What does this fold into?
Amino acid sequence: MPGPLAGHRIIEIAGIGPGPFAAMLLADLGAEVIRVERAGAVRGPAPEEPHGDILLRGRRNIAIDLKNPDGVETLLGLVEGADALIEGFRPGVMERLGIGPDVCLARNPKLVFGRMTGWGQTGPYSQAAGHDINYISLAGALAHFGRKGEGPTPPLNMVGDFGGGGMFLALGVVAALLEAGKSGEGQVVDTAMVDGSAVLMSMFWAFKEMGAFDENARGTNLLDTGAHFYDVYRCSDGEYISIGSIEPQFYAELLRLTGLSDDEQFAKQMDQGEWGPLKERLTEVFAGKTREEWCSIMEHTDVCFAPVLTMSEAAAHPHNVERETFIDVGGVTQPAPAPRFSRTATSVESAPAWPGEHTRDVLAAWGFDEARIDELIESGAVRHAD
It folds into this structure.
């Protein structure tokens, strides 16, 4: 069977980063997602090879000129047959194009209108430009990534764009679809990366309240590289391993396998005053063997251990190979859909498409007759990459 969202139709207004990521997740889960590109993005016939952007996988692509009245009407015609629409423009842009939530919901009262911004639809920052690094800064997240004595370290753009942004947009859309199925009414989902990033910090707000996290001492806490038993260590070959031996039984296993069980200093696991010297000792120990040697000693034990792998190494690791965590689509290695479902299994239906590659097919499948499609192409309201 197709994925659990099979039967749902979703329109994605083309953007970058978190919007395409949310659309990819929804498509991975079985929804029919069409990506609406700018007409100007069509540069001629679609190349034979798939588009290289993995975030575009699993959906068809249509090109519409949203500054053309016929283009706007075309999109609204698609809205009438959709369950949801997602967009990632600054607040007010969709309204100025004539396809804001009020207009779309008037055409389809059950529509879920998902909005993705950095700062949100309201607030003093709402009209300002920004990127992941800025959103996680304002959310109170970035300040806490980094080692003692060093500045904050941006964690790629995974926390704001994808964890706090695209993932929350996908969750919000699915939740609103569930509600619309009961009420018969759509609604707007205002997803802001600063909001989502703040939510991702919930456990640390709890730790702070309980006195277990010092927000003014980056790199000295349990999970921020302060502890000697929760960190990465360099091996003799220059590769790294990760250790997360928090619980007493796991810590005991760490000491046993490193030969440190009889060292009285290591018995003071939770004495933060000892963490610095103990980390220096472990640094020396782990530097004495290669990563592969430590894998042979610690893999499949309760140390809470894993080698630190690059993307390519991860794709080739036996655990990931057995679980098919990575798949090949159109000759490109990439992460498989997640999570997994026992009855409605997910799959990637197609490789990434080029702008306008499916304009004719999408319009025909969504109820436009052939003569009308020809008119729209002739007028420039839509473009087909043929």
